[in-house]
Amino acid sequence: MRSDWDDGAAEAMVAQYDKTGIARDLALRVYTSRLLGRDKRLVLHGGGNTSLKTRAPDLLGLFDALADATAGLSAAQAKGFRGAYQARVTR
After folding, report:
1. Are 55 and 37 spatial neighbours (Cβ–Cβ below 8 Å)?
2. How confident is the model at residue 68 (pLDDT cuts 50, 70, 90)?
3. What CATH number does the domain containing 58 carry?
4. Contact at 8 Å (CB) between 77 and 16?
5. Whole domain around residue 47: which residue ranges?
6. How far apart are CA 26 and CA 69, in angstroms?
7. Under 8 Å CB-to-CB from 17, ≥6 apart: which residues?
8. Is 37 part of any domain?
9. 68, 80 in Cβ contact below 8 A?
10. Residue 38: HSE in the Cβ half-sphere, 13 Å Cα cutoff
11. Which of residues 48 and 89 earns the better pLDDT score?
12. Do 51 and 66 contact (CB within 8 A), yes or no?
């Protein structure tokens, strides 16, 4: 399988999302989600194809989070991901 990864395009997406306060790791996950979405053989209908383990803020500071592409929302945009407390998900 040929890789469609493009360093310039990936960094452009990071820069675009940085202007709106979106972290680098989520911006790169959106970029890879778009790459995956181009090939229908790699996509499961209904979402859930991509996720991200990251650190996210809440009222008490940073916590380990699992951000998953939400059904009905597009993983081609950062708003298509929803976060959950990783400790609660992995019990």
Report:
1. no
2. confident
3. 3.40.225.10
4. no
5. 7-89
6. 11
7. 23, 26, 27, 30, 78
8. yes
9. no
10. 9
11. 89
12. yes
Token output for 7: 């360093």
Asked if 56 and 81 touch (Cβ cutoff 8 Å), the reply is: no
Q: What is the pLDDT of residues 8-54, one digit of tens each?
A: 999 999 999 999 988 899 899 989 988 888 888 887 776 666 888 88
In this structure, is residue 2 part of a structural domain?
no
- The stretches of the chain forming alpha helices (DSSP H) are 7-18, 24-37, 86-89
Q: Which residue has 């990251």 as its token pair?
A: 54
Number of domains in the chain: 1
Residue with tokens 């399988």: 1
- What local confidence, expressed as pLDDT, does residue 75 receive? 57
**Regarding predicted confidence, which is higher, 71 or 8?**
8
49, two tokens: 């194809």
